[in-house]
TrEMBL record:
Pfam family, one: 2OG-FeII_Oxy_3
Organism (species): Paraglaciecola mesophila KMM 241
UniProt cofactor(s): L-ascorbate
Keyword annotations of the record: Dioxygenase, Iron, Metal-binding, Oxidoreductase, Vitamin C
Protein name (database record): SM-20-related protein
PROSITE patterns: FE2OG_OXY
InterPro entries: HIF_prolyl_hydroxylases, Oxoglu/Fe-dep_dioxygenase_dom, Pro_4_hyd_alph, Pro_4_hyd_alph_FE2OG_OXY
Listed Gene3D superfamilies: q2cbj1_9rhob like domain
Length: 217
């Protein structure tokens, strides 16, 4: 599928995402971002030391803890510090608005981070949101790996409930994007044989209390 100018996602891509979310709750899109944007993000992720990747933790806010038996990747939050990040956030904002317009999902905002899985790094089976217990509604992962081949492994495995075999295996191919309902699908990242870069993100509801907007992360 092709995208056009840098400022917005292709209408057909948006329609496809919304349709698949309605039918199955997930979708995989190839050639997701405009070339200019994905190339800039790839360069930033793979070569920019300013990003300052940190060991990822699990849980939120005060309950956050580093647990390398669950996940061993490193992350850098996307905060709009570079032109490529700003372009990416603009496109995801465009997608948020379009999904709300078509599916009435009430997505309030989007938080995202780069993730770097070094050789052998993994993220064990987990869900991104526990039913009724989180404001993450929709998960997205965009992959930034040029020339990925099957032998590199590092696939995302998606499961239905407690099932042992994945119903979907996603290779972390350059500019491929997977989007899925956060509460619905347990998933895991298999260890890769080489560096694996991605942007993981979550569209959230607003669980604010007393006028205080729910903090990100
Ligand atoms: O990188 C992936 O394929 C998935 C990452 C993931 O599950 C997460 O960050 O929650
Ligand atoms: Fe996840």
């Amino acid at each position: 599928m092709q995208t056009h100018e840098a400022g917005c996602l292709d209408e057909q891509v948006i329609a496809y995402i919304c349709e698949q979310l309605t039918i199955t709750g997930y979708c995989v899109v190839s050639d997701f971002l405009p070339e200019l944007v994905i190339n800039a993000l790839y360069l930033e992720a793979s070569s920019d030391v300013r990003l300052n990747f940190k060991q990822a933790s699990i849980g939120r806010e005060q309950l956050q803890q580093v647990n390398t038996s669950v996940r061993s990747d490193s992350i850098a939050w996307i905060n709009g510090q570079s032109e490529s990040q700003r372009l990416f956030l603009k496109l995801m904002e465009n997608l948020r608005i379009e999904i709300n317009r078509r599916l009435f999902m009430g997505l309030f905002d989007y938080e995202s981070h780069y993730a770097h899985y070094g050789q052998g790094d993994f993220y064990k089976r987990h869900v991104d949101a526990f039913k009724g217990n989180s404001n993450r509604l929709l998960s997205s992962v965009v992959y930034l790996n040029a020339d990925w081949v099957k032998a590199d492994e590092g696939e995302l495995l998606m499961f239905h409930d407690e099932q042992v075999s994945p119903f979907l295996i996603v290779e972390p191919i350059f500019n491929q994007c997977v989007i899925f309902l956060s509460e619905q699908f347990p998933h895991e990242v298999r260890a890769a044989k080489r560096d694996r870069y991605s942007i993981a993100g979550w569209f959230r509801t607003n669980n604010s209390i007393g006028g205080q907007i729910d903090p990100p992360r």
